[in-house]
Amino acid sequence: PEQTNSCPAPTRLAPGDSVLAPLLLLHPPTPPALSSCCQPDESSARPSAPPTEACSAVPEPWRFDCYPERGAIVSRDMCESRNCCYVPQHTGQDGVPWCFYPPDYPSYSLDVLSGDIMNLQLEVFEETDTRLHVKVRAEYANVLFLIPLQSLTLRGCSCILSNPVYFGLFVIYRRSALICITYILFLNTTVAPLFFADQFLQLSSSLPSQYVYGLGEHRSTFQHDVQWNTLTMWARDVPPTEKTNLYGVHPFYLALEEGGHAHGFFLLNSNAMDVVLQPAPAVTWRTIGGILDFYVFLGPEPAAVVQQYLEVVGRPAMPIYWALGYHLCRWGYQTSNATWEVVTSMRNYGIPQDVQWNDIDYMDKFLDFTYDPVHFDSLPELVKDLHAHDQRYVMILDPGISSTQPQGEYWPYDEGLRRGVFIKDAHGNTLIGKVWPGLTAYPDFSDEATHEWWFENLQRFYKKVPFDGLWIDMNEPSNFLDGSTNGCPSNNIEDPPYTPGVLGGLLRSKTVCASAQQKLSSHYNLHSLYGLHEAKATASALTRLLGKRPFVISRSSFPSQGQYSGHWLGDNRSQWKDMVASIAGILSFNVLGLPLVGADICGFSEQTDEELCVRWSQLGAFYPFSRNHNALDSKAQDPSVFSPSARAAMREALLLRYSLYPLLYTLFHHAHAHGHTVARPLFWMPLFTFSPRPQVPQDPLTYGIDRQFLWGRGLLVTPVLLPGADSVEGYFPAGRWYDYYKVREQSPLFVCIISLGKNILLSAPLDKINLHLREGSIIPTQRPNLTLWVSSGQPLHLLTALREDGSAAGELFWDDGESLDTYENLQYAYVLFTVEQVASYITVESASFYGVQSRPEQVQVNGQEAAFTYKDNKVHIPENK
Ligand SMILES: *[C@@H]1O[C@H](CO)[C@@H](O)[C@H](O)[C@H]1NC(C)=O
Ligand SMILES: *[C@@H]1O[C@H](CO)[C@@H](O)[C@H](O)[C@H]1NC(C)=O
Ligand SMILES: *[C@@H]1O[C@H](CO)[C@@H](O)[C@H](O)[C@H]1NC(C)=O
Ligand SMILES: *[C@H]1O[C@H](CO)[C@@H](O)[C@H](O)[C@H]1NC(C)=O
């Protein structure tokens, strides 16, 4: 305990302290004595309803659901048999539970939930100054599944703590300033009972504000709604729908506190779970397996929270350069010749394109590692032609391997069976489901042996079609059946006492049986990790095959996915509201450590129209991952099929993206090396550029914005998101904002918006997307061309937006764009640009070049030999009049 004046001094546990906590109940201020709690409590076996007055006194926002079972119509008897409060709602407000825990919930007796665990162990690690790691586990935790996370190298390190946090029994404060009253409470898990049973674990906490982000993958606004919002997590193949579990699972949130500080919370758990947000504001984590293993990240800046999170789960991989180019795809080109025609017409119209893709129609009878020898006869030649034009080829692969081909004719299945790589059912037989090729077996990517088999398959196919990257789809894993051809056994793994609010109501809905067996554990525990394991196998196979940075885009994802793949937001519709929602999706995945993310430009299903597709192409030019993709029955929607004016607008947008490639590449470097975001929300930006640390967001008007976003710190993107518009309103946080195009044209006209934080109406004709440069930025650009390979050979051009005092700064990361680990092996250039105190013209006063391996013989500036210093791998060119 550390006493400061008369400040409250909550108990602080030393790093690594263990406390034997009594069963389930961690109520403050003093936890019940061990003995009374561990003895069977006679009275709690008897239903005894809490007093009505006490129940009614609980404010509605603070009612924690005592009967969360999906679809249950709760009667007074059912509720009171759990010793809970029963107060039917009259206010008509949606979502307020009728059955909730009384204020002093005395003990725990849930008759339907079995498997009580009598002793819990609480471990608290202060792993770094800014990271707490808390584990609540049963004494015999070996029966439970623990997720192996590769990047947890820092786990359990003992560090010197200079910024301690106070920790009571699950009450966490931030000591935010020197004065003692500024304790900010940001976690209080005593607001509702804690449960720890074999298949039911629940932890609730108050939240410091309603500003909560992350918690993917869900279709929602960027800032989650806390009005009784249940976000269920369990990987699921379904076109993104609100209030539904989707392809990926990311039990991590970032929350803002009063005054703009931020913290993060990560529950390391892969089991099906509900995350309930309620207006108190408060959150409830309800999962059906594993342990309660969570991390709290203290920020205090939002960007620092993401960095701290990525230190635990792993930072994203550095993408190969062409990943940042424009990608074209559709389901239903029908032939390789038709695919080729699109590529040719893009070239003829001078529209940038780096990568051509194919969806499942390239396959022979939808079989992985084959191509249709009739309709896709020219596929190998197409790929050669792409390579000859510095373009790349990516095709789809699904995990399901056909199990019904004649023996000896389909190596992937025969060999997979021989090596035992497929997921087994509960009886140990190969589990058979159904996907595109018909009946299929599912590779078990939790097994290293499967990775070798997957690699060999790719190697065999590569000899026929020398692809450059892979798109892994259907990896929730998706199944057209529920469970398997033989259904699933009936047991408490398939039908747990409590099933979170998963779509379809059953864990096996449109996937394999929860009781299926994988090398590492049962599918019950591994389901939501399937996409992560497949991405890992795929990235490592590509690295072995090509010796370059692997390009993988995955539909399903889990924390640490960014180390292996990017992500697209799934099967969108060609509608304006889907385009709007894509920005929230992109911002969320940047917070979740998957910055290489984009939605299907112009929309996947349904028919797009020209105006929508132009606007979407403009926005999509600023997706970190930029791909136009279309469904089987829709009209073509690649840029080449539109009217000359629409085509020109799309071409302009893409050339703009290509000209900004040096900036984008540098941002990805910072994501990889330092855990930064690439696309980021406006609140990432502190109000005052020069305020002393911590630079926390201080403009609450930015907290909910998800119709605009930033690239890095300096480039503000304000897309048009409505039909028929020729103007758009955008929010401009305080400061000076320069019109990007005016800066580019070196226009002498007034080009700067000086905002105090307000909405501004901008002109937005159909051929323009509004871009603004924040004061103080220097961004490197390049003359664009039709592929990044060609453009990246062009000289750089710096665009500078000065502060009032005439200063600005920017940077560039540059390497060969494709070799592995250039940063780690010091095979790169890092250039820092700064401008200071300019009067009427711009002078680059000095330049520093980091990572220069040896002292250069000569350095030139504008063709003239310049003085320089060289020290610690850094070349510095001082001011030179
Ligand atoms: C935590 O929540 C409990 C229950 O609402 C409340 O009684 C307690 O005062 C809170 N603790 C703090 C430190 O605010
Ligand atoms: C594709 O084009 C090639 C070359 O023109 C031609 O030989 C081949 O028959 C075409 N394939 C299909 C399926 O039309
Ligand atoms: C690409 O580069 C070539 C050769 O320098 C040039 O002729 C062409 O105009 C450039 N294309 C674009 C779109 O700038
Ligand atoms: C497109 O938009 C939403 C918004 O992010 C995104 O979450 C989703 O993945 C995409 N698909 C659909 C059908 O909305």
UniProtKB/TrEMBL annotation:
UniProt-listed InterPro entries: Gal_mutarotase_sf_dom, GH, Glyco_hydro_31_AS, Glyco_hydro_31_C, Glyco_hydro_31_CS, Glyco_hydro_31_N_dom, Glyco_hydro_31_TIM, Glyco_hydro_b
Location of region: Disordered: 34-53
One of the record's GO molecular function terms: carbohydrate binding
Keywords of the record: Disulfide bond, Glycoprotein, Glycosidase, Hydrolase, Membrane, Transmembrane, Transmembrane helix
Stretches assigned to the P-type domain: 53-103
Main location: membrane
Record-level GO BP terms: carbohydrate metabolic process
Subcellular location: Membrane
Transmembrane stretches, start-end: 177-196
Domain of life the protein comes from: Eukaryota
Entry protein name: Si:ch73-12o23.1
Gene Ontology CC annotations of this record: membrane
Keyword rRNA-binding belongs to the record: no
Pfam families the UniProt entry points to: Gal_mutarotas_2, Glyco_hydro_31_2nd, Glyco_hydro_31_3rd, Trefoil
Family note: Belongs to the glycosyl hydrolase 31 family.
Polar residues composition bias: residue spans: 36-46
Organism the protein comes from: Neogobius melanostomus
Database matches in SUPFAM superfamilies: (Trans)glycosidases (SSF51445), Galactose mutarotase-like (SSF74650), Glycosyl hydrolase domain (SSF51011), Trefoil (SSF57492)
